[in-house]
């Protein structure tokens, strides 16, 4: 009987696959990414290298000394105090204690801070509280402290916001009104993002993380790009990270452009050029995971997209390695065997600058 390799499916289920099946999935995954993005697939040598990462019998794998990269995050330290449904462990700690633990015990490169909801709209009315919280924590941390928020344009539509909901208008065939609503909401979101980030800059914010950008489509992406461009004028020394929500920008509007480029339909290697044009300092691609496919298939896709993104980028690329993206299962607490294999592959083969 041929030896089987332990791996997982995209939903986290543990499976045993034959070596030939792993190789077939890697090939199919990289070909899928290459076809969708019109980019080069992994070479035979790179595919074999990825196979060896999966064939490693150790539960945890790692890069060689000297190949380590910097990590950024979207409030990862708050996992220590978050609820279990959110992947947290519910320790009785304050945000300050959680971040200090993350810095001094976990030896993180950077730390993230944000509102519990982690969306832009709820932060605006409590900005003075968030400024005080950021300032207090920044006084006792050594590593860069990055404030993060998700633009989340969806909160600006009814019933949560003031603008007509495109999700209701579009199915009804009310196209023009749906497009206008997105344009108006995007302008509102842009102003809120600028207000929040510039306010935090007043207390010495090290960096601002635009997280899960374009979750509501191309208008969401536009608001983030416009806000970044304006912020780099207001706060040129505040680092800005732009992390995406998906490998493909949904055309909920369809005709929105930034610097003459239509945003709908852009893949990571094209998204990064928009991030550069806006003035972002770090770009985080997010490659979707298919839960019905194996992790070798999913990770091969992610590495293919990331490799091309790094090749064309002029700014550091930090792939979003989390639940349901970049080769990790769609699971609140991704298993360590998948986390370390994805990290190693994205660094060694995808040439990622950070994670």
- Using the coordinates above, name the CATH class: Alpha Beta
The CATH topology comes to TIM Barrel
Number of strands: 9
Radius of gyration: 20 Å
Class from helix and strand fractions: alpha/beta
Shape category: globular
Distance between the termini: 39 Å
Series of secondary-structure elements, N-terminal to C-terminal: EEHHHEHHEHHEHEEEHEHH
Keywords:
five-stranded parallel β-sheet; TIM Barrel; 355 residues; 41% helix; single chain; two-stranded antiparallel ribbon; globular; alpha/beta
Task: Explain this structure.
The structure is a single chain. This protein is of the alpha/beta class and 355 residues long. The chain has a single domain, classed as TIM Barrel, CATH 3.20.20. 41% of the residues lie in helices and 11% in strands. The chain contains eleven helices and nine strands. The strands form three sheets. Strands 3-4-5-6-9 form a five-stranded parallel beta sheet. The longest helix is centred in the middle third of the chain and has 27 residues, at 175-201. The two termini are 39 Å apart.
């Amino acid at each position: 009987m041929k030896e089987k390799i332990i791996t997982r499916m995209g939903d986290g289920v543990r499976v045993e696959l034959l070596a030939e099946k792993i190789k077939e999935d890697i090939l199919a995954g990289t070909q899928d990414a290459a076809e969708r993005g019109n980019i080069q697939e992994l070479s035979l040598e790179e595919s074999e290298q990825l196979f060896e990462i999966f064939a490693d019998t150790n539960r945890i794998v790692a890069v060689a000394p000297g190949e380590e990269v910097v990590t950024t995050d979207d409030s990862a330290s708050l996992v220590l105090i978050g609820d279990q449904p959110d992947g947290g462990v519910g320790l009785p700690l304050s945000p300050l204690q959680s971040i200090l633990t993350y810095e001094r015990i976990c030896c993180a490169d950077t730390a993230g801070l944000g509102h519990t909801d982690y969306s832009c709209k709820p932060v605006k009315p409590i900005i003075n509280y968030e400024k005080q919280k950021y300032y207090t924590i920044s006084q006792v941390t050594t590593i860069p402290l990055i404030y993060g928020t998700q633009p989340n344009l969806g909160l600006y539509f009814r019933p949560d916001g003031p603008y007509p909901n495109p999700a209701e208008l579009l199915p009804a065939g009310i196209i023009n009104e749906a497009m206008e609503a997105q344009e108006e909401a995007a302008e509102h979101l842009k102003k809120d993002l600028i207000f929040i980030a510039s306010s935090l800059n007043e207390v010495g914010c090290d960096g601002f993380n635009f997280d899960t950008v374009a979750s509501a489509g191309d208008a969401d992406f536009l608001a983030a790009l416009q806000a970044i461009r304006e912020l780099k004028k207001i706060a040129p020394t505040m680092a800005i990270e732009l992390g995406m929500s998906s490998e493909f920008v949904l055309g909920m509007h369809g005709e929105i452009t930034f610097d003459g480029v239509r945003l709908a339909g852009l893949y990571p290697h094209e998204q990064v050029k928009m991030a550069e044009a806006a003035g972002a300092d770090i770009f985080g691609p997010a490659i979707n995971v298919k839960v019905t496919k194996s992790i070798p298939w999913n990770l091969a896709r992610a590495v293919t997209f990331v490799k091309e993104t790094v090749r064309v980028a002029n700014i550091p690329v930090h792939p979003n390695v989390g639940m349901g993206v970049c080769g990790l299962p769609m699971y609140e607490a991704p298993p360590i065997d998948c986390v370390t294999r994805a990290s190693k592959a994205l660094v060694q083969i995808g040439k990622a600058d950070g994670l």
